[in-house]
Amino acid sequence: xxxxxxxxxxxxxxxxxxxxxxxxxxxxxxxxxxxxxxxxxxxxxxxxxxxxxxxxxxxxxxxxxxxxxxxxxxxxxxxxxxxxxxxxxxxxxxxxxxxxxxxxxxxxxxxxxxxxxxxxxxxxxxxxxxxxxxxxxxxxxxxxxxxxxxxxxxxxxxxxxxxxxxxxxxxxxxxxxxxxxxxxxxxxxxxxxxxxxxxx
Length: 200
Hints:
There is one protein chain. This protein has three helices and six strands, in the order H-E-E-E-E-E-H-E-H. By secondary structure, the protein is of the alpha/beta class.
């Protein structure tokens, strides 16, 4: 019993100490907030700009007189086997491979057109290209009939060094022996000549 009384007395003293007196708020000195140096946002790194693509260099440049051809040849077969359409942007050239794309620029007016070589010609000395009617109108050659132009070769289906393929008919024979005799003579004289025979 005395042990129990002692315990109760201790509890009572503890209650007295906790219940008496005012609670004082403990104030500890607070440190100042850290000074954060304002750093400017990182400069946006410049977006790399690809270098300007240089204009495609022409494979070949030629200057000379251009003419045009139209109605008499319209709907006839051209040298490349296609039917010639004078209303399409095409042209004839003596040596460029058939299918070559060229830009034709009128030196005087600056007007130009991109045309495809589909035929052979012109066969008049001093002229370098024969334009279709549509191309002649685009390049200001139509009314003049002939104009000085600059030809820029843009694309070829075969190396330009090989040039265009062409053939020359030497003769027509009703007798095979006469044809063979001429063929033998040509082969002896022009060692690189190739003789083709066909019936027509």
